[in-house]
Each structure stands twice: as structure tokens, then as C-alpha cells.
Amino acid sequence: QWMNLDENGVVLTVAYLFALHDIGKAHPSFQYSNDEIRQKWEARGCDIQKYYPCKGFRHECRSRIVVQKLWKEGAFPPKTARLFASVLRLHHQGKADSNEGKEPDPMWWEIVQELEARIRSVFPPEQIKTEVKNCDALGAVLTGLLVLCDWVASSKCFGTCDAATDDAFCNWAIQRAEETLQAYGLISDLEDAFPYGVSFDEFWKAIPREQMRPVQIACEKMEYRKSALTIIEAPP
Questions:
Q1: Do the beta carbons of residue 28 and residue 41 sit within 8 Å?
Q2: What is the pTM of this model?
Q3: For the segment 110-157, what is each residue's pLDDT rounded down to a tens digit?
Q4: N or C: which end of the chain has fewer CB within 10 A?
């Protein structure tokens, strides 16, 4: 409702946004930070000293600048484009640095455009004709979801793929995503993955009853399971 799209449109658009989250890594200050990769760029005649070393370069800050430039042609309404760009900027919230590096040579912009085109071909976003609603809430939801997706896809459980084509990679990723989300308990074949009335130690089998903390014992006696949100105030 906030994005003025149907469910399929939301899925495709959010997938497109999230697939762009690391596009700021297509920048010499990031690429040259790895010795092996830097040598490959140097062999291609790139001016290494112009961009390296770049202290405090943050790829997520660069991602925000890149997507705003990509979307200048009107991919999204202005306010919505700024919101989406901010979500990408925040996917490493704890980092204090905000150095997006100097504007690179035109070659790098061509690389960025090619990456975006490939992403768009896999996840074609729906056109959002009017500004999204409730920006604060939508931004919070998208940021939290992006952080979760980034951790899941970067985990050892998800693995790595050496597929030669985009199609082969997508087929592999769909299968691995299903298996990984199942393994983490984020999706389940059970009709009720979080059954009501199960005791704490039954649900969290790694924590024996005798090792439960006082606040856990107290909460177990409450009717908190019936509520959508529980606020617990207790000493750390």
C-alpha cells in the first residue's frame, strides 16, 4: 500500500533495490584496496595512484550517490528516489565514516551502468508513478529487511557460486536461498512454526531450564505470547 504497487510489483522492486545495494563497490578506491585486484587493474593501464590509498572509503555512501545519478531520468519520483537511496546508504549503519571517494573516470560509470542493466533485466522494477506513502515507516522496514538479506546472503550457509551465466546463477541462488532460509528458521514447512504454549526450554533447546535467566523465567509466566509486541524493561 505504501508503495502503491501490488504484491508482485513490490517483490520485484524491492529485489531490484537490494540487488543494487553494493554497487558503490564499483569504484577504484574500493577495487584497488585488494592487492590482487589492484594488480589486474594496473595491468589494464589504470592510474592506481590517482585513487589509492583512499582512507575511510565507504561503498554504501557511494551506492547512494550512484543510484541517485542512475535514477535522474525519472525511474522513481524524486522523494521516493531519495528514500530508496537512503535505505542503501544505511545498510552498514554502524560505520561513522562517510567518505564516498572522488568522482572516478568515465570508464567506471560505464561499468556501473552495465551492472544496473543486468540487475534490471533479472529484477525489472515496477514503475512508481506517485510518491510513496509513510516514508518513515517504509524506510525503516526496507532498511531492516536489507540488513537481514545482506547477512543471510553473505553467510557461509548461503555459500558461493561460480556460475558462468546470469541465468545459471539465478537458478543456483533460488535453490540456495530456499535452503538457507529454511536452515535459519526464517521460513518453515510447519503450519505453525512458532506454536503457542511451548515452554522456553522446549523452544530454545540449547538453553536448559536450570540455566534460564530470571527475566526469561518471569516472561514465561506472562501472557506475552498473545501480543504482537512485548516491551521488556529490565537491568542488562
A1: yes
A2: 0.80
A3: 999 999 999 999 899 998 989 999 999 999 999 999 999 999 999 998
A4: C
